[in-house]
Specification:
Distance between the termini: 92 Å
Number of helices: 21
CATH superfamily of the largest domain: Reverse transcriptase/Diguanylate cyclase domain
CATH class of the largest domain: Alpha Beta
CATH topology of the largest domain: Alpha-Beta Plaits
Strand content: 25-35%
Helix content: 25-40%
Shape: elongated
Number of strands: 24
Strand order of the largest sheet: 4-3-7-6-5
Largest sheet: 5 strands, antiparallel
Structural class: alpha+beta
Number of domains: 4
Length: 574
């Protein structure tokens, strides 16, 4: 058998028309938050992920080739004594073929700082073989926790605060017994923050809750039996990589390392979700088809593009975008991108050709010609020889996020009562108009409209009636102006109208008179018909003019209309 570290660590993830897309083993472990290094039968490291590089303070090249017995690690035990390389969990696993769990080791980085890590080592064996040909080491940086434990011993900090700082869930269960003294259930007496979050309960709700109430019947029964045995035998329960259905959460299945230790008539239980680690270890010995299944079941759509053409796409495209993979493979990707988004998508993806990793949000067509908003994350794709071979991209549907953002924008820029643009949006629109040079022979005009005697309407008919008057007038203003003109509720009973492309001030005055006439039409309020009038100030704008000056002039004209007896249109020019 060829040594594992002599192999080409790549797997095929797709095949179309004889072409194959490969994925590096390193890519599969780089997303793990744990540090991972893989050592061959000779103890030398041949594979590591970015988390391992960050924890150890070394580059991948510096890590590669080192063995556990390398003196440069300067590893130590918790008591400060040297940690011999042949006692390293990896070496023990290679020698015995058994997994090694929860080993604490201090490792000196090249800069002299000491990092404490918690290591788990798993054997990697060929099918039917007991002797491992490699070992995978998973470790986490526990420097902060280690320091906290030392501080706890020195300062006597509360036990609960320490537990609450842990990432792993921890609970203390009190054994509940029947009249004969037999353990029949367990009651939650304490749970740290991580346990409360995982169980989906607040601490106050979880405390005092029986195990048989919290979990489904069949799961609770199995847990009670296992925990009862811990109490009766007085020996810890150690379960590694056990499958557990999370029916109390989302109905999914996950893998966990579970520890239960008897304590004061009850027991402490802690668990760690090792689903990602378990899946990766198992996948190392799988065939190409197993890796294809991994990609096929991803919730995102994964694609390989070459020259803008889709050469491979994951089967998840069927559930996410309703396309069958063979319907869009070998086609131009831009054909399923919304026409308005193609330029942005194309220019963004061109940056990948320059070696950049990029993201872009665009609309992508489904099979029935509807569209989903998707976030695309793309980066250069390297083939088995390490040479550039197009783009790898993942797509995730973000319709909900886009809708939420649009709703927030609508709330921020529009008046809730009338649906018109609000004061802030009005000022921004006028400012933008003044910053652009108008077309030759055209003007922008501003109309400041104020309802006459609006307070009397509120006092006579009530504020709900006043709101109805505002809604009716807002609708009438919007229907009276031309397409391309703009109406906003400026505040209270004031409306602002921006007219674009008028030939001279008389055009703006005619529109103002039309608005005044439309406003006079009676409005039905309950059993009464009332007549409302508006006073309107008109002025024209000049490119580059100060927005405050323009607003003040329109306001001056409106007050002149009020002074002229109300229900008037007054034009004041610059």
């Amino acid at each position: 058998m060829t040594d594992f570290d002599q192999r080409d660590h790549r797997v095929q993830v797709g095949r179309r028309n004889g072409e194959t897309s490969d994925v590096s083993m390193a890519d599969l472990i780089n997303d793990l938050r744990e540090g991972v290094v893989v050592q061959g039968a000779d103890g030398r490291i041949f594979l590591s992920n970015s988390a391992a590089e960050e924890i150890l303070g070394l580059t991948a090249d510096q890590i590669a080739g080192r063995s556990s017995t390398d003196s440069r690690w300067r590893a130590i035990h918790e008591d400060g004594s040297p940690f011999p390389g042949d006692e390293h969990p990896a070496m023990v696993t290679l020698a015995t073929g058994e997994a090694v769990r929860d080993v604490v080791m201090g490792v000196h980085k090249p800069d002299g700082t000491l990092t404490w890590i918690l290591i788990n080592s798993d054997p990697i064996c060929a099918e039917g073989q007991r002797q491992p040909y490699a070992v995978a080491n998973f470790f986490t940086d526990i420097t902060a926790v280690h320091a906290l434990e030392g501080a706890l011993e020195r300062t006597g900090r509360s036990f609960r605060r320490v537990l609450d700082s842990m990432l792993d869930p921890v609970v203390f269960l009190h054994a509940e017994r029947d009249g004969s003294g037999r353990v029949i259930d367990f009651v939650h007496e304490y749970a740290n923050d991580a346990a409360c979050k995982w169980l989906g309960r607040e601490y106050e709700d979880l405390a005092g809750t029986r195990l048989t109430v919290l979990f489904p019947a069949h799961m609770a029964s199995a847990l009670v039996d296992s925990y009862r045995e811990v109490i009766e035998k007085g020996e810890p329960l150690v379960l590694d990589n056990v499958a557990m259905a999370q029916e109390q959460l989302d109905g999914g299945d996950s893998r966990f390392d579970v520890r239960a230790v008897p304590l004061d008539g009850g027991l402490t239980v802690t668990w760690r979700d090792v689903s990602a680690r378990s899946e990766w270890v198992e996948s190392l010995a799988r065939s190409e088809e197993r890796y294809r299944l991994l990609i096929a079941n991803a919730s995102d759509v994964v694609a390989h593009l070459r020259g803008g053409v889709l050469v491979w796409v994951s089967p998840s495209v069927r559930s996410v975008l309703e396309w069958n993979a063979d319907e869009i493979v070998n086609s131009d990707f831009m054909q399923i991108v919304h026409a308005d988004d193609r330029f942005r998508a194309r220019t963004t993806l061109e940056r990948v050709e320059l070696g950049q990793s990029v993201g872009v949000r665009v609309r992508v067509s489904t099979r029935d010609n509807s569209y989903h908003w998707v976030d695309i994350h793309a980066r250069p794709f390297l083939n088995a020889a390490g040479e550039p071979d197009g783009i790898s991209a993942s797509m995730r549907v973000v319709d909900a996020e886009v809708a939420a953002a649009a709703d927030l924008w609508e709330r921020a820029t529009h008046d809730a009562l009338t649906g018109l643009a609000n004061r802030g949006a009005a000022i921004e629109r006028v400012t933008s108009t003044l910053s652009h040079e108008p077309r030759t022979g055209s003007l922008a005009a501003l109309l400041f409209c104020d309802i006459d005697n609006f307070k009397a309407i509120n006092d006579t008919y009530g504020h709900l009636a006043g709101d109805e008057v505002l809604r009716v007038l807002a609708d009438r203003l919007a229907r009276t102006v031309r397409q391309g003109d703009w109406v906003a509720r400026f505040g209270g009973d004031e409306f602002l109208v921006l007219l674009n492309g008028v030939r001279d001030p008389s055009d703006a005055t005619r529109v103002a008179n039309a608005i005044a006439a439309r406003a006079r039409e009676s409005i039905r309020l309950g059993d009464a018909d009332i007549r409302v009038t508006v006073s309107i100030g008109v002025t024209t704008a000049a490119a580059g003019e100060d927005v405050d000056a323009l607003m003040a002039r329109a306001d001056e004209a409106m007050y002149a209309a009020k002074g002229a007896g109300k229900d008037q249109v007054v034009t004041v020019l610059r």
